[in-house]
Amino acid sequence: MFYTSYAGSTGDRGPVQRFHLDVQNEIYSVLGRRPQNQGRLQHAEPASGPDPAVLSCRSLLVLYSADYLKDPQCALEWSVFRERMERRRWRTGEPADALIGVLWRADSLVLPRAVANTGQLLDDLGEGYQGPGVAGLQRDPSVWERYRMLVRRVAERLMRAAKTPLPAMAEADGDAVEPYFGPGYGRRPVRRPAPPPPSRSAERHLVLVLLAGTRTGMEPLRESADTYAETAEEWCPFRPYSDEPAAAVAAGAARACGVDRLTVVTDDDTGPDPLRDVDASAVVVALVDPWLTDDSSFPVRWERLARSGARVAAVITVLPRLDEESRRSADRLRDAMARTPARQLGASHHEAGSPEALRHAVAAVVADAFAYAADEDPAPGRADELRPEGTAERLLRRQRERAGWLRHRASWSPLVSGTPSESWGGG
Q1: Which of 82, 280, 330, 407 has the least CB density, counted as fewest CB within 10 Å?
Q2: Does the global pTM surpass 0.85?
Q3: Starting from the edge strand earliest in sequence, which strands make up the sheet with 205-211, in order?
Q4: Cβ(96)–Cβ(164) under 8 Å?
Q5: Which residue in 44, 36, 37, 39 sits closest to 12, CA to CA?
Q6: Helix or strand or coil: residue 348?
Q7: pLDDT of 23-67, one tens digit each?
Q8: Residue 306: partners with Cβ closer than 8 Å, 6 or more residues away
Q9: Distance of CA 156 to the CA centre of its chain
Q10: Helix or strand or coil: residue 314?
Q11: Burial class (CB in 10 A: 0-12, 13-18, 19+), 374
């Protein structure tokens, strides 16, 4: 749930462990002693990169001190988490205050502007207190109530922040993050800004519809529900080999393809239509967990999606190849998806069995959808206003598409030549 980051060079491992456990027990007292509510404490041994927990935790607890700002590992972990908060802001347009900081040792501490302006800093240790920080507050029996009040405030902020999931980050991406402070700050070679992309007449807006369940809803339907969490956005179908949520994988691929705006929506079949306010020019991609077809609400969700009138470009079914339970049930799950066919939405269908396959599927869909949008005039009205395509019309469209492909394809080099005018492949 949260990760505690501190400077090991201060020699405060024991007091830090006590503070971490005090906050942890306060969270347990409210949410219960469950694995998803457990926090992680930074390892005592130095590491070459960020702890894997920093790449996927929901909130970060930082114990600021002068040594913290000089520690390269602390600087990298802090910067990686800030980058994850920025990615959420890019995806949703909403800020994420999931970084909670306290003044562990206030002596000789001057926070850089980037640090002071990021997250929430609980620097109020009580009226009239002149001690050196939380470390001193913890050791002073006369201010025990102030210490307990601070622990409760920290736990409350961490629990509140955990309600807003952040996109997970791959290990390679974490190693590439440039620190905002510390010994490595400003020492990496300055990268020249990439030239601006060609101007486009319209914004590229991608809407990702998640048809996935939660841990509570999927436990009765599967032998193991370890890949699910409290929200569909946190669904990690490729565990234990990857802790990156499916939504984050798809979002990263979309951003790499030049999408200007990404909106992630879920449909729990109880609220209003999540696509009712989607602009007609937006491209919609449905990301589906086939195990959800066993839920009685799935036909309702699918029908709502079909009737929404949104321009659904593709349906991507996530069926992990390395999940034993999914592999055993693959035929049944594919049959279940076939009974709710993608053609009901006028969309193409794809299947992804790994994070890499999901990235390629999203990239292909985005490239095709916006390429057609650039070459063709926009359709008059929304998808629900178009009449169904007949058999003859579909055959004619496919002939035109094939003719266009043949017209634009590169020439083939001869494979076997008999005379200069004969070759295989050129036709």
Answers
A1: 407
A2: no
A3: 261-266, 205-211, 283-288, 312-318, 348-352
A4: yes
A5: 44
A6: strand
A7: 999 999 999 998 888 999 988 777 777 888 899 899 999 999 999
A8: 344, 345
A9: 24
A10: strand
A11: exposed
The backbone torsions φ and ψ at residue 100, rounded to the nearest 5 degrees and listed phi first, read: -110, 120
147-151, 368-372, 392-396: least confidently modelled range = 392-396
> Kind and range of the H or E element at 102?
strand 99-103
Least confident window among 222-226, 280-284, 343-347: 343-347
Size (the chain), residues: 427
CA nearest 107: which of 136, 81, 78? Answer: 136
Question: Distance (Å, rounded) from C-alpha 83 to C-alpha 61?
Answer: 15
- Give every CB contact of residue 22 below 8 A, 6+ residues apart in sequence: 151
- Let me know the angle formed at the C-alpha of 238 by 167 and 251, rounded to the nearest 5 degrees: 35
306 Rama sector, left if φ>0, alpha if ψ -120 to 50, beta otherwise: alpha
Cβ 98 vs Cβ 166: under 8 Å: yes
Residue 140: count other Cβ atoms within 10 Å of its Cβ.
12
Dist. CA 296–CA 9, nearest whole Å:
55
Q: Across 182-240, where does the E strand assignment appear?
A: 205-211
C-alpha–C-alpha distance, residues 304 and 267, integer Å: 9
Scanning the structure block, which residue is given the tokens 């008999």? Answer: 418
- Torsion angle (degrees, nearest 10) of CA 215, 219, 221, 225: 70
Separation between Cα atoms, residue 291 and residue 69, nearest integer Å: 46
Q: What is the mean pLDDT of residues 243-267?
A: 86
Q: Which of 113, 99, 3, 95 is nearest to 50 (CA)?
A: 3
- Distance, in Å, from the CA atom of 204 to the CA atom of 183, rounded to the nearest integer, reads 39
Lookup: tokens for 398? 């496919």
Strands (E), 21-91: 40-41, 59-64
How many Cβ atoms sit within 10 Å of the Cβ of residue 270? Answer: 7
In angstroms, rounded to a whole number, what is the distance separating the alpha carbons of residues 123 and 150?
A: 10
CA–CA distances in Å: residue 189 to residues 178, 186, 192 = 10, 8, 9
100: enclosing H helix or E strand: strand 99-103
Place of tokens 């700050």: 185
